[in-house]
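Lab notebook, bench 4. Still working through the backlog of constructs that have no structural model yet. Next entry is a single chain of 450 residues. Request: give me the C-alpha cells for it.
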Amino acid sequence: MDKKEKVPFYAGVAKKTSKKPAPAEKEKHIDAKAGSKSKKTFSAKNGKQAESFSERTFSYEITSDIFEPFSKETNQLIKDFDEIVQSVSPLNSKQLCSLPYKIRDLSHELTDTRGKRRLGYMNSREALSAYVRYFSWWNLYRLCSIFESLPVDAFEFLHDGDAVLDIGSGPLTAVIALWVSRPELRQKKLNVIVTDLSHNALLLGEELYMAVAARTCADGGEPWHITRIKGTFGVEIRQKASFVICANMVNELVQDSERTPDEDAKNIQKKLFAYAEAKAVFLLVEPGVPRGSRFISLFRDGFIRKNFNICSPCPQCAACAFPGTRNAKWCHFVRDTADAPSALAKRSEAAGLPKDRAAVSFVFAENTGGAPKAEKPAEKLAVRIISDEIALPGGRKGRYACSRWGALLLTGRQLKNIKSGSLVTIKIDDSKKPLLKKDRKTNFLTIDLG
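Model written out:
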C-alpha cells in the first residue's frame, strides 16, 4: 500500500496551524471537527443527505426512578424494624454487644467460606438472630425500593382468595416488604404460602410479619393468612399461585451446581412455572453482582419465550442488552444508602461491613396469555439507566442504558438528575437510529444529551 494513503486526510490542515504534532486529545478534536465539515451522511432509507449527528444533542425527561424516596410510612417502618425484631425475639445486653461479631461471621459463611456452611444454618438461633438484624434489614430496604417503584396498578391482578407464593422465604422478608410498601393489598384476603428449609426462620418470620401488620392494619382489617411449608425448592404445594416471589434464593440454590447457568436457570424456571397459575405474575430478585444478574437475564429470556410481558425494569421485551455473560456488562441498580436507618448504618460499621450502596438485579413479569404486541415506530425512546456515572474525555459524563434499540451510552456535560434506575424518555425517533455513532470501546450506540 502506498505510504501516502496512510496519512490521515486532515494532516495537511494540522501542519498549516502548527509545526508541532498535535496532542492525542487535540487530534481527536480536529478529527471530529474536520469530519463534520467534510463528510456527508446519507440516509439509507431515502438516499437524501441527512444532517450530521457529530454534535447533535437531544432533549430528555425523567419519567420515573426505581429508587424514589420512600413513603412516610414505609420509611418509618424500615427505621423501626430493629425495634420490632427486638420485641419479637429479644436479646440481652451481652448478646447485643456480641452481635457485630456474629454478623461478621455469618457474612463470611454467606460469601467467601460458603462452601463450609451447613445447609440448615438458619436453624441456629444465633445465626438467625444475626441474620434478621442485619441481612433481613438491608433486604427489606432493597425490596421495599422495588415494590414501591412498580406501577400504581401493578397488583390489580390479585383478588380475595388468591395465593402468593414466596419461595425460599427465610424470615419472610419479601412478604413483610410487600405488606409495608403496597398498602392497597392490605384489604385483600390473600393466602401467603412461604417455603424454606428452616422451620425456625419461617416461624420467626411469621411473628415479625404479624408484629408489622399489627402496627399497620386499618380498622377492621386483618393480616394475610400465612401458610408455612418446610422443605427444599421443589416441595409440593397444593394451591397454584397467582403471584410468585423468589428473592435472593437462586444464588444459594446453585452454589454447588456442576451445571451451566443456562441449564440451572431452565431447571429452576420450569419448577417455578409448575407452582403458578396460567396467568401468574413473577418477581425474581438477586444480588446486584454479575452472577446474580446473569440468572435474572436468563430468567427474563425464559419469560419472553413463554410470551410474558416484562413489566419492570426493562423498557423493552427483546433480547437482554446486558446479559452478564463473561467480560460483558451486567444489569443492576444501585441505591445510595444515605436515607437508610442510622442504626442500621452504625451496626454495619460495627460489624466491619459498611454499606454506602445497595445493589440489586430483578425482573417483574406477567403472563399476557399471548404474544407481546409488536412495537410501533415512536417519536420518543424510553431508556433505563443501568450504571453509575462514568467519566469521558473532554469533561463529559456518561451512563449505560437499556432500550428497544439495545445497549446505549448516553453522554453529556451534566446528565442532570439522571441516576441508576432512572427511566428516561429521549426525544428521538426510530429513523435517527442508523445515523447515530457508536462508542469505540463498547460498540454501543451513543446519544448525546448535551
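Notes after review: Residues 3-39 form one domain. The chain has a mean pLDDT of 86. Flag for follow-up if needed.
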